[in-house]
Amino acid sequence: xxxxxxxxxxxxxxxxxxxxxAHRGWIVLTRDKWIRRRPIEKQAxxxxxxxxxxxxxGNLRGRxxxxxxxxxxxxxxRLARITEPPFVFAVTKTRVEPRPL
Length: 101
Hints:
Strand order of the largest sheet: 1-2-3-4
Structural class: alpha/beta
Strand content: 15-25%
Number of strands: 4
Shape: globular
Largest sheet: 4 strands, mixed
């Protein structure tokens, strides 16, 4: 696991770091549910061929996020292997489901 802050400035724009992450073959895990809806970020996701999972359940605390990830990690790994990028999946408390770009 790599943390955003270890490679990019805290305030780095999504359209800057998304292509770099995709180029490295990494998978994005974020709480930013608007990342696929804002035009510039959406274009960066598509153009870079990014693979992203978005935790969509409100204001999660660290422990709750970790529990969701642990619960769904096998499904997320399988989907990352079999789904052609670019893609965005929503990760909820109960499931992982695709979101249109």
